[in-house]
Design brief:
By secondary structure, this protein is mainly alpha-helical. It is built from 4 helices and 2 strands. It has a two-stranded antiparallel sheet with strand order 1-2.
């Protein structure tokens, strides 16, 4: 079994070549589209930008202007029309 953690992989047993390939593909998918995810997340927000909010943005490595732009794009483009891997 393999767990994908924020700080790495936890591997409890040897994995086959096929499992290794699936794992690589899953890692690739998780790495794509995060701008869409963050934009959607920000679009859910309706409130003041507090110190706590700014801290979360810092943890994401995104500034306020950027996340607001991503949210505007997410609001304008329905999920069904978005292109995977587009950043």
């Amino acid at each position: 079994m393999v767990d994908i953690l924020s700080k790495g992989l936890r591997v409890e047993r040897a994995i086959s070549e096929a499992e290794w390939i699936r794992l690589g593909r899953e890692i690739a998918v998780r790495g794509r589209g995060w701008q869409w995810q963050v934009g959607d997340w920000w679009a859910l927000r309706d409130g003041e930008v507090t110190a706590e909010v700014l801290k979360v943005l810092d943890e994401l490595g995104v500034d306020l202007k950027t996340v607001r732009n991503w949210a505007a794009v997410c609001k304008a483009i329905p999920l069904e029309e978005r292109v995977e891997g587009l950043s």
